[in-house]
Design a protein that fits this description.
Length: about 350
């Protein structure tokens, strides 16, 4: 009986470890695919077309009898949800990933919660609550994360490889990087994701059906990304699908990672609360850093390592303060609904 209870209690942990494993594999596969010339918006379109087909059965089965009022206001917020959470955020992330490294890109994505908090504070949606212990720790965590990001961006220091440098001869090492451009892309991605979290508050007020909302968001995002992609590259070669690593990565991300992110995170939030899934993000960051160095021979700089560790400390401080916050502050009903219902797409980037 005790063993059964232990196994039942550990299911959320196992679910999040599985999700981080899938996310780590996707990050590395995507990096290889992009370095081999896969067009970013073709990747986004095909990924979310497949994801739509995977989420659709859940929408039609679990929410088939629920009322669906698709007014102009609903379509507007669905479109905003798609452009901020997929079309812009994921497009910018993939361009940033292509121009930097998987480790650096994952490092930057961990800043999304604190950037969202900072953005919400500036707009007056949230308060600092510096008179409370939770507010002080949350604010300190935000500052620590930003310091870690600045160190990772501005300071390189000594570099080293795990293993022998000459063991690694592959396309990722040979690919020319554009750190300045990639960093701007990734920071813009974080800002887009931060806006996306705020958009979901409004979307859930007018359309609370999470499966239908996700499916329609993916459809709209695929259409938006197609239009965006055609503006950037109309060549048939950029949109052509072939039996190669790029196609395998698209299928893996659309058919497995995106649905798994949605289902596992939503289930875990119900079991352990909205903060619990974010606690495992640093594990994915560490796994990406180690495997990218071991498999692809990517060098690790002292600045990126130091920045990563500082961001992890800041993130856990921020999340702890966030977790204590409901005891101190009663959130507005719309924000509370969004906190519980929203499913971070970034978990499956």
């Amino acid at each position: 009986m005790e063993m059964k209870n232990l196994l039942m209690g550990s299911r959320p942990v196992m679910a999040m470890l599985l999700l981080q494993g899938l996310g780590t594999a996707l990050q590395l596969l995507t990096k290889v695919a992009l370095n081999k010339g896969t067009f970013v918006y073709a990747f986004v379109v095909y990924r979310h077309a497949i994801a739509t087909l995977c989420v659709a059965p859940f929408a039609f089965f679990f929410e088939r009898n629920k009322e669906k009022k698709l007014s102009f206001e609903v379509w507007f917020w669905l479109s905003m949800n798609a452009i901020t959470g997929v079309t812009m955020a994921m497009g910018l992330f993939y361009y940033g990933l292509r121009d930097t490294t998987a480790t650096f890109a994952t490092n930057m994505i961990n800043l999304v919660p604190v950037i969202t908090f900072a953005f919400s504070t500036v707009l007056g949606i949230e308060k600092l609550l510096l008179q409370t212990r939770a507010g002080k720790i949350k604010t300190a965590g935000t500052i620590i994360c930003l310091v870690g990001a600045l160190i990772a961006i501005l300071y390189k220091g000594e570099s080293f490889h795990i293993g022998h440098e000459h063991m690694f001869e592959n396309s990722i090492i040979k690919k020319k990087t554009h750190w300045a451009r990639g960093t701007i892309m990734l920071l813009s991605c974080c800002l887009s994701f931060a806006i996306w979290y705020l958009v979901q508050v409004e979307l859930l007020k007018v359309f609370p059906l999470k499966y239908w909302g996700t499916m329609l968001t993916f459809i709209i995002a695929a259409a938006q990304s197609t239009a965006m992609g055609l503006c950037l590259n109309r060549s048939k070669a950029a949109w052509k699908l072939e039996w190669n690593l790029s196609l395998a990565t698209i299928i893996f991300s659309g058919a497995m990672v995106t649905p798994a992110t949605f289902l596992l995170v939503s289930w875990t939030i119900k079991k352990r609360g909205p903060t619990f899934p974010s606690l495992f993000n640093p594990l994915g960051l560490i796994a990406v850093a180690v495997l990218e160095a071991l498999i692809f021979g990517e060098e690790i700089s002292l600045g990126s390592l130091l920045g990563m560790l500082i961001i992890i400390v800041g993130l856990y401080s921020f999340l702890w303060g966030r977790k204590q916050e409901p005891v101190v502050l009663r959130r507005p009903s719309g924000a509370a609904r969004a906190e519980v219902a929203r499913i971070p797409e970034s978990g499956g980037l």
